């Protein structure tokens, strides 16, 4: 019985203590940071928080569970941290709190679901164009977006398949600049750290279009002969309005990088053979250049021309007939032949008038010995045929005839019979004997070409006169002129048989070697060129410059300077002309500057300068547009100033007339009231201007009259017909009275008017002034006219008078 009571007491005591402990533990809440749903690799922190009673932390221990699996034993921290979450960490988490040293007293929190998701990476493209088209040379950006935007991860970009990454970096942006055609493919991306990596979510296709096509090089013509003009054309198609630049190559660059897609070889030679290609690039684009395929260029040698003796007979003796034939390889037709002969080094000349395939010399002489060759040309390719090697023609002397004394007897005495025998070399037969005088040949005179009134250097546009000088004083020559541009490419200048050959306004194509030959009907019959004259035509480039610039304001000074460049050794003496809108404003001046001291609107326009060389050649600069700007007020002020100046001058003349009379030889001061002295009636041969002496209307009348008397009237012919057309001017001085209240201002004598009239002076219309035009010229008070006696009337005088007129309402 006592034992039962003891156990009962102990049980009650334990229960009471347990209830006290339970009351000491508050309610606990479980929180998750940052979220209850996270991505693989994220850091997750679970915190067990108590709400009431605030028990001392040091008296509590925490035990963490995921579902029913304990994650930790009793620990003092109220947090459980997952540093790098995995999908296996997904589950319901809760904590159990226990008071220290009393493991039987525990408190559980509510459960909290934590979900760990697998990361996925998504690739997005950002093209340069709004239509999302991508061209080579563009800048393309690829963005790799990973779920949760992890920090400190590494991003990888894959091309094609999931093999090796083509790019690996910390930033999630991949840039292709510039993008090329080889970048076209499928792309995907992936993000990773040391433990985790994302799952590629998508693949995108990157299609790069050509900005311009691969260039193609074409060569024309397909078959190229020496001397042909060859054109290389680089063809490429550009998109988006791109401007292409072209460059041509043969081993190395041919020195052309421009928008021009052709390259021209003017006269093809063997040295032009080889492989050519062209290169195209987009102007202003960061893109690799594109090359065309190699195109071989083969230049065929011109057909060779060979000279042979037709029906050859060896040896050739003086007096024989020789026919030479120009044989050209291959079977081309339409040739025009030229024959040449060379007697001495650099002394070749064209044999004129022979354009056929054969050249025949009738009855050759030893002067016909020499080297002969032929050239040929035609209008189609191949255009030229050049001599392979000259034919050497040797004319042998005829067999020698030797005179000997037959049965020679030495000495021969007077009365002896002497027989002379003519012995001929070799064993030819059929001779017919003649006796000839022995002549010693003299070398033909030499012809030398010189520039008449020589001026060095010679510029494009000059006039050049070449003169053929022949030694000795023979006359009656007929001249032939020749020009040589290339070896074995000389030709006769047709139509010129005079001693001088003038080239008007030379061009650079006139450069070359010139020589002359001459012939006449008497001995010596020929004059051959000593050595050719080399003529070089230089180009001069003219430039127009403006100072201070092409745009000036009204009133500024403007200098236009004509500058020139060339390969001359010293500056030539030039004359300069300046043109404005194709009208000469300064003609042939030694000064290269045209100065405009004060510009106005009329100086605006298109200017050009012309440089004239001493030889008469004219070189033109490019046109320059000059703009003159400024307020119209400036021009208006200038005009007003001029008008005021003219009015003051008119006033001074008026005052002078009033006091001294007009300073003119043909002027008469009329200071009389006699109407008959100043008026010429139509019947008297004069022209009636106005009624002059109207003193009753205005006592201070001043008038102007222009009277022309015909010659017949001057001579006293009263019946001569008078002129019917008069142009005259009246200066009318009228004064407005002071303005009264309510009334218009009255006339005053301080206004000066100028009437300009064109009337026919007849009896009916001489006094009409309905067409007068008035202008307010100057304000000046007119003094009262003094009275003087009228001067003598001169029937041939031209009078000028000033008279006042009443103002017409």
Write down the overall mean pLDDT: 75
Uncertain stretches: 6-10, 12-23, 662-809
Question: What multimeric state do the chains show?
Answer: single chain
Q: Report the strand count.
A: 62
> How many individual helices?
4
Which percent range describes the beta-strand content?
A: 35-45%
Rounded Rg: 59 Å
**What is the 3D form?**
elongated
Share in helix: under 10%
Largest sheet: 8 strands, mixed
> Structural class of the secondary elements?
mainly beta
The N- to C-terminal Cα distance equals 160 Å
List keywords for this structure.
single chain; 809 residues; mainly beta; eight-stranded mixed β-sheet
Describe the fold and architecture.
This protein is mainly beta and 809 residues long. The protein is built from four helices and 62 strands. The strands form 16 sheets. Strands 30, 32, 33, 34, 35, 36, 37 and 38 form an eight-stranded mixed beta sheet that branches. Strands 42, 44, 45, 46, 47, 48, 49 and 50 form an eight-stranded mixed beta sheet that branches. Strands 2, 4, 5, 7, 8 and 9 form a six-stranded mixed beta sheet that branches. The longest helix is centred in the last third of the chain and has 28 residues, at 632-659. Mean pLDDT is 75; it is low at 6-10, 12-23 and 662-809.
């Amino acid at each position: 019985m006592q034992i039962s009571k003891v156990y009962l007491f102990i049980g009650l005591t334990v229960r009471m203590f347990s209830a006290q402990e339970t009351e000491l533990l508050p309610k606990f809440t479980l929180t998750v940071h940052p979220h209850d749903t996270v991505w693989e690799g994220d850091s997750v922190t679970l915190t067990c928080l108590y709400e009431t009673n605030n028990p001392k932390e040091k008296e509590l221990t925490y035990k963490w569970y995921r579902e029913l699996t304990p994650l930790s034993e009793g620990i003092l921290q109220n947090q459980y941290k997952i540093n790098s979450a995995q999908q296996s960490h997904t589950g319901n988490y809760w904590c159990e709190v226990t008071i220290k040293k009393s493991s039987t007293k525990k408190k559980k929190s509510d459960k909290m679901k934590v979900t760990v998701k697998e990361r996925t990476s998504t690739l997005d493209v950002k093209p340069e164009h709004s239509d999302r088209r991508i061209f080579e040379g563009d800048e393309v950006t690829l963005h790799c977006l990973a779920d949760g935007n992890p920090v400190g991860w590494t991003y990888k970009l894959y091309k094609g398949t999931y093999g090796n990454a083509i790019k690996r970096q910390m930033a999630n942006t991949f840039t292709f600049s510039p993008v090329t055609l080889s970048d076209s493919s499928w792309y995907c991306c992936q993000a990773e750290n040391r433990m985790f990596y994302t799952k590629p979510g998508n693949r995108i296709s990157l299609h790069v279009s050509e900005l311009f096509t691969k260039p193609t090089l074409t060569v024309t013509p397909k078959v190229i002969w020496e001397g042909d003009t060859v054109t290389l054309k680089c063809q490429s198609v550009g998109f988006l309005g791109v401007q292409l630049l072209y460059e041509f190559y043969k081993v190395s660059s041919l020195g052309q990088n421009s928008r021009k897609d052709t390259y021209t070889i003017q006269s093809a030679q063997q040295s032009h053979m080889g492989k050519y290609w062209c290169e195209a690039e987009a102007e202003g684009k960061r893109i690799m250049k594109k090359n065309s395929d190699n195109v071989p260029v083969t230049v065929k040698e011109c057909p060779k021309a060979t000279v042979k003796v037709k029906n050859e007979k060896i040896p050739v003796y003086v007096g024989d007939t020789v026919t030479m034939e120009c044989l050209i390889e291959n079977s081309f037709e339409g040739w025009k032949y030229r024959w040449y002969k060379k007697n001495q080094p650099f002394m070749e000349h064209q044999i004129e008038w022979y354009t056929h395939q054969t050249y025949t010399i009738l009855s050759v002489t030893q002067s016909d010995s020499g080297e002969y060759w032929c050239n040929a040309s035609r209008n189609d390719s191949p255009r030229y045929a050049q001599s392979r090697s000259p034919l050497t023609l040797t004319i042998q002397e005829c067999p020698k005839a030797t005179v000997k004394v037959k049965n020679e007897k030495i000495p021969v005495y007077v009365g002896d019979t002497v027989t002379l025998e003519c012995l001929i070399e070799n064993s030819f037969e059929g001779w017919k004997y003649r006796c000839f005088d022995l002549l010693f040949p003299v070398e033909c005179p030499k012809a030398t070409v010189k520039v008449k009134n020589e001026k060095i250097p010679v510029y494009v546009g000059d006039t050049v006169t070449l003169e053929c000088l022949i030694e000795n004083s023979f006359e009656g020559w007929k001249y032939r002129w020749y020009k040589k541009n290339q070896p074995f490419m000389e030709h006769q200048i047709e139509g010129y048989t005079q001693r001088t050959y003038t080239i008007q306004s030379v061009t650079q194509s006139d450069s070359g070697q010139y020589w002359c030959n001459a012939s006449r009907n008497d001995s010596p019959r020929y004059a051959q060129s000593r050595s050719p004259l080399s003529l070089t035509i230089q180009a001069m480039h003219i430039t127009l410059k403006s100072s201070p610039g092409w745009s000036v304001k009204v009133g500024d000074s403007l200098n236009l300077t004509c500058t020139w460049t060339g390969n001359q050794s010293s500056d030539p003496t030039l004359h300069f002309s300046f043109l404005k809108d194709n009208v000469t404003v300064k003609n042939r001046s030694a000064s290269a500057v045209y100065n405009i001291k004060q510009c106005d609107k009329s100086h605006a326009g298109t200017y050009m300068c012309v440089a004239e060389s001493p030889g008469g050649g004219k070189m033109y600069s490019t046109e320059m547009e000059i703009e003159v700007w400024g307020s119209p007020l400036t021009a208006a002020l200038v005009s007003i100033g001029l008008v005021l100046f003219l009015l003051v001058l008119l006033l001074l003349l008026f005052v002078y007339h009033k006091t001294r009379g007009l300073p003119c030889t043909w002027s008469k001061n009329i200071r009389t009231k006699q109407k008959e002295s100043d008026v010429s009636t139509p019947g008297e041969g004069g022209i009636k201007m106005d009624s002059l002496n109207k003193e009753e209307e205005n006592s201070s009348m001043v008038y102007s009259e222009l009277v022309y008397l015909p010659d017949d009237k001057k001579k006293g012919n009263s019946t001569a017909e008078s002129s019917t057309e008069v142009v005259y001017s009246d200066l009318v001085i009228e004064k407005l009275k002071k303005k009264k209240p309510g009334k218009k201002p009255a006339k005053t004598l301080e206004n000066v008017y100028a009437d300009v009239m064109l009337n026919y002076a007849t009896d009916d219309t001489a006094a009409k002034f309905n067409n007068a035009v008035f202008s307010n010229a100057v304000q000046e008070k007119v003094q009262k006219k003094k009275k003087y006696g009228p001067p003598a009337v001169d029937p041939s005088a031209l009078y000028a008078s000033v008279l006042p007129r009443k103002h017409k309402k």
